[in-house]
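BUG: 3D viewer hangs when loading the predicted structure for this chain

Environment: internal workstation, default settings.
Expected: structure renders.
Actual: progress bar stalls at 90%.

Input used:
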Amino acid sequence: MEGQTIFWMIFMLIITFGPFFYFASLAASKEKIKAQKEE
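Structure tokens produced before the viewer hung:
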């Protein structure tokens, strides 16, 4: 049971922070593309 509880805690964390990290990585990749175009 404890293992399942830990799994659910991680699962909820991924649901909560997943979109944030997704958009953060998207913004970072856009900045990299801008930097490459400026060169």
